Amino acid sequence: MPRLQMTVEALRERALFVRRDIIALLAKAQSGHSGGPLSSADFGTALFFHEMNVNPSRLDDPGRDLWHFSIGHVTPVIYSLMGERGYFPLADLLGFRQLNGHLQGHPSKHDTPGIEVSSGSLGQGLSVACGMALGSRMDGASRRVYCVMGDGEQQEGQIWEAAMFAAHYKLDNLCGIVDYNRKQIDGDVETVMGIAPLASKWRAFNWHVIEVNGHDIAGILQAFDEARATSGRPSVILAHTVMGRGVSFMEDDYKWHGVPPNRDQAEQALKEMGTSLADWTARLESWTRPEVAPGLRAAS
Amino acid sequence: MSGTTKTAAPVPPAPVNLAKPEMKRTREGFGHGLVDLGERRKDVVVLVGDLTGSTNVNLFAERFPDRFVEVGIAEQNMMCIAAGLAATGKIPFLATYGAFASCRSADQMRVTVAYTDLPVKIGGAHGGISVGPDGATHQAMEEIAIVRSIPNMKMVVPCDYWETRKATVALADDPHPNYIRFGREPVPVVTGPDTLFTLGKANVVREGSDLAIIACGVMVYEALVAAEELSDRGIQARVLNVHTLKPLDRDQVARAARECGAIVTAEEHQIHGGLGGAIAEAVVQSYPVPIEFVAVHDRFGRSGKQDELMAAFGIKAPDVVRAAERVLARKRAR
Predict the structure, then answer these.
(1) Residue span of the structural domain in which A208 resides
(2) Looking at residues A61-65, what average pLDDT do you find?
(3) Does some domain include residue A218?
(4) How far apart are CA A257 and CA A273, in angstroms?
(5) Minimal Cβ distance to A124: which of B72, B88, B108
(6) What is the pLDDT of residue A289?
(7) Which of the residues A55, A121, A214, B152 could staple to B111 if both were Cys, CB 3.0 to 4.6 A apart?
(8) Residues on chain A bordering chain B, Cβ-to-Cβ distance under 8 angstroms
(9) What's the pLDDT score for residue B15?
(10) Which strands, in side-by-side order, build the sheet including B244-246?
(11) Which residues of chain B make contact with A71, given a CB cutoff of 8 A?
(12) Catalytic residue among B70, B75, B143, B228
């Protein structure tokens, strides 16, 4: 079952799990980023549990789609998605950023099986995805390549070198996703260094641009379908999101870009999400097998 | 050139007329090496940043157009595209000027290529001051220092056409990232098609035990010329061709220190962090002996002709001879 194609309802529930995982692992590590992981949890879940053909039990499956997070700092959501999807036991999430754990602060291929290419220095990932898409085409493979970028990251010049390349080589097997939460470390993106009008920029680079509410699962699935149906040019999905989405006191506040919740804040966040730190941590600890954990409703 | 005694990688004596050597471009060795590879394996692809002719990858492009990727003037992009290609099982070689490959895309080389340990092969053309008239911006003289400081990277500086061609082929078989430096202008051919090249194994190209001259790249020829002149004065210099800067052949270097008791290093590179630095690190940890460095002394290059520049920057055979005299004086004073 490489492509899960979960229903919208099941995806909503799984996205809630992912958000709980993010808070629980950050609370344990007391280090890491909160804002971006929470804003990308919905489209991330749609990617891993509906759209992409991935095979966590056979990482080198030649038929797999390739995914790459150019924003390496959102490891809390990357690892939560991987754990929920069965790449490794969910219990491992509690070793995030620990010396002897396999979950580095930024994604590392040789520490975390399933990561295709390490990342962490912004602006490089879309180029990597271009190479993956071109290599796949050279092989005549039908695989698709997905690259998640940040909106602040659009300030890196290399993004636009890659944008030029992908359109020049008509890499229609490539789908970029921008987590457009309008915040970066120093403040509002438009205040720090404006990137608007972003859709026009991508169109001018000859990409097919799809704008979507990045928290509307049904809309996200439609956007993936539209990208899949687009030929002759790469597609980019501008996912309009809210930083810190799902935790009232984090939402739309740039100060949550790079810090974790303390214990009390994590407790409050998880309470808002219908669980407690002790209960959710216990769920993670108990799941020691690398497989997709059942949902509350979806599994029955 | 004398025989090949006591070397791990024996070098068949190649008839080299030091006074009037055959001249050939190392970049052509890179181009021909890529063609050799293209014929041998289907997974080799070549990327270039708008320098097809000057890096000689045109030879590959003409033969294997489906495996040739023009990236345009975007070195950082090219480094990461190569990484993505490697992630799909390709063996990508990228070619641009070494000044850009080593500096402009250093972060991409470090994070995306080396940290992931992908088999990306970086071809740095126009290495060293011998680039000539283009001047300082295009004369790569920091490559060894930068590349060898990055984990997982290997660094090769071949001495001539044949060695560049063989090194290019050998690097494809190494499942890790690596960097090969070659030059623009024709340089003396001092090896032959049958000379053994083993990645990570230094070649003794002249025997002697009064001192050792350890060189890489075009300086191997200058070292041989210097050794010949020293020989006329009754001083027998061993010449060691350290084509692989990383991993360094520490055994061969320690042997040179032990058996010769004095070392001169010779490179077309900044004095900080290059061959001299690598040799010094190895020697002080094995068998400390006096070392003199023939290198560019912490300054940018400038426009001029190849030979003029090498002389002006103090990296010709006479400079090696003077360094030998200094190091022998220090050896005697111990």
Answers:
(1) 8-286
(2) 94
(3) yes
(4) 20
(5) B108
(6) 85
(7) A121
(8) 66, 68, 108-110, 116-121, 123-125, 127-136, 138-139, 141, 157-158, 161-162, 164-165, 168
(9) 66
(10) B68-70, B44-48, B91-97, B121-125, B178-181, B154-156, B244-246
(11) none
(12) B75
Rounded Cα distance between B158 and B218, Å, is 8
Using a CB–CB cutoff of 8 Å, tell me whether B82 touches chain A: yes
Angle at B94 between CA B90 and CA B100, to 5 degrees: 150
Judge whether B75 counts as a catalytic residue.
yes
Label residue B1 by pLDDT band (50, 70, 90): very low
Cα B104–B108–B113 angle (5° rounding)? 135
**Nearest by Cα to B88 from A47, A75, A112, A65:** A65
SS3 A218: helix
Residue A1 pLDDT greater than 80, yes or no: no
Q: Above 90 in pLDDT, residue A17?
A: yes
Cβ contact, residue pair A117, B92, below 8 Å:
no
pLDDT of residue A292: 82
Look up the CATH number of the domain holding residue A72: 3.40.50.970
Count CB-CB contacts under 10 A for residue A36: 29
pLDDT tens for each residue of A140-186: 999 999 999 999 999 999 999 999 999 999 999 999 999 999 999 99
Q: What is the mean pLDDT of chain A?
A: 96
Nearest Cα to Cα of residue B222 among B141, B159, B292 = B159
Query: Cβ B88–A66 below 8 Å, yes or no?
Result: yes
CB contact under 8 A, B85 and A110: no
> Residue A45 pLDDT > 60, yes or no?
yes
Distance (Å) from the alpha carbon of A69 to chain B's nearest alpha carbon: 12
How near does any CA of chain A get to the CA of B97, in Å? 18
Predicted confidence band of residue B148 (pLDDT cuts 50, 70, 90): very high
Closest approach of A103 to chain B, Cα-based (Å): 15
- Pick from B80, B115, B117: CB nearest A131: B80
CB contact under 8 A, B79 and A130: no
We find that the CATH architecture of domain B23-188 is 3-Layer(aba) Sandwich (3.40)
- Name the pLDDT band for A2 (thresholds 50, 70, 90): confident
Q: For residue B311, report the phi and psi dihedrals to the nearest 5 degrees.
A: -70, -45
CA distance to A10, A47, A127, A185, A218, per residue, from A297 (Å): 8, 20, 40, 37, 18
Q: Domain count of chain A?
A: 1
Beta-ladder partners of A202: none
Q: Domain B203-333: which CATH class?
A: alpha beta
**For A84-107, what is each residue's pLDDT tens digit?**
999 999 999 999 999 988 999 999
**Nearest beta carbon to residue B80 from set A110, A128, A135:** A128
Domain range annotation of chain B:
23-188, 203-333
